[in-house]
Amino acid sequence: MVNGGDRELSLAVDWSEFSYSWTCVIIFIIAYLMGIPTNVSIYAKVNSFGVVFIAIIILFIFGLGFYSMSNTEFTYDKDKYDLYLLERSKAEDPDSIPYLSFV
Question: Which residues of 67-96 are buried (b: 16+ CB within 10 A; e: fewer)?
Answer without folding.
Answer: eeeeeeeeeeeeeebeebeeeeeeeeeeee
